[in-house]
Write a structure and sequence with these properties.
Elements lengths: L1 H21 L3 H25 L11 H21 L6 H7 L12 H6 L7 H19 L5 H27 L8 H11 L11 H10 L7 H8 L11 H22 L6
Length: 265
């Protein structure tokens, strides 16, 4: 418990300093936040275009798809907010700056990700919550205490899956310096979490469920709330998949840490 309090206080201090520094450039913050919101809204626009010509997609109507989209977006947001520094790990490794993370008596992953808090992700969080509330009202969903608890559990699991996939992709940089394409691939694949997995053929359903489980970021958890009469029991595996993937990802990270020895200069 003392260790948790220590890391919590340290994280708050580090992030507060980062936010103060970032807010010195307010124009950059406003522009980047607007760009992120526009990018996410563009994804919604695709739904509206599709529904001009069809009534549903594999039994999913427009408001159900908006719920699915917002759930997946909400699950990806913790990665955006707290782990955005993973995008530049290859640069730190290449120029030798990463070696500094070995010299502090704190967890290396914590130290590394704590240096950046992507505040423009707060705009993404607001958008996701707004769309979630809108679609819930349109669909007439009843948020019972059980549903609220399961929502929190599923979001936790889904967010952990996304974080784990990103961490594994970023850890490839310990072996292949120019590995940003792996991280880009993971984020591109995560976009499929916003669509019903039933629109894909059997091969891709298997990939998105068992190999790169992005279907558990949005589709399976959303079915619990939208289609409770036909919910797949596998949805309850979401938090366990998230925890299991994070354990694997963290161990890959640790193996990479142990092999890294700086630039040699």
């Amino acid at each position: 418990m003392k260790r948790l309090k220590f890391y919590s206080r340290l994280y708050i201090k580090m992030i507060s300093q980062y936010i103060k520094a970032r807010m010195q450039f307010r124009s950059d913050f406003y522009i980047s936040t607007f760009a992120m919101l526009l990018l996410n809204i563009t994804g919604l626009f695709t739904y509206w275009v599709l529904f001009y010509s069809i009534n549903n997609i594999e039994g999913w109507n427009l408001n159900e798809l908006i719920f699915l989209y917002s759930f997946a977006l909400l699950a990806v947001t913790p990665m955006q907010l707290f782990f955005d520094n993973l995008w530049v790990i290859r640069i730190s490794l290449r120029n030798g700056n990463f070696i500094k993370y070995y010299f502090k008596p704190i967890n290396t992953l914590f130290y590394y990700v704590s240096e950046v808090f992507d505040i423009k992700g707060l705009g993404q969080l607001v958008l996701a919550l707004t769309m979630l509330i809108y679609s819930s009202v349109k669909l007439g969903l009843h948020w019972t205490p059980l549903n609220i608890i399961m929502f929190v559990v599923f979001i936790f699991g889904s967010a952990l899956i996304m974080i784990s996939l990103a961490l594994m992709a970023a850890s490839v940089s310990f072996w292949v310096i120019e590995s940003v394409s792996v991280l880009v691939l993971i984020f591109k694949l995560s976009e499929y979490a916003r669509y019903p997995i039933t629109i894909f053929n059997g091969f891709f359903r298997f990939i998105f469920t068992c190999i790169i489980p992005v279907a558990f970021i949005g589709y399976y958890p959303s079915r619990f709330f939208l289609k409770p009469d036909s919910v797949d029991m596998g949805v309850f595996a979401t938090p366990f998949i998230g925890i299991g993937l994070f354990i694997i990802a963290y161990n890959i990270w640790r193996i990479g840490l142990n092999r890294y020895s700086g630039t040699g200069s």
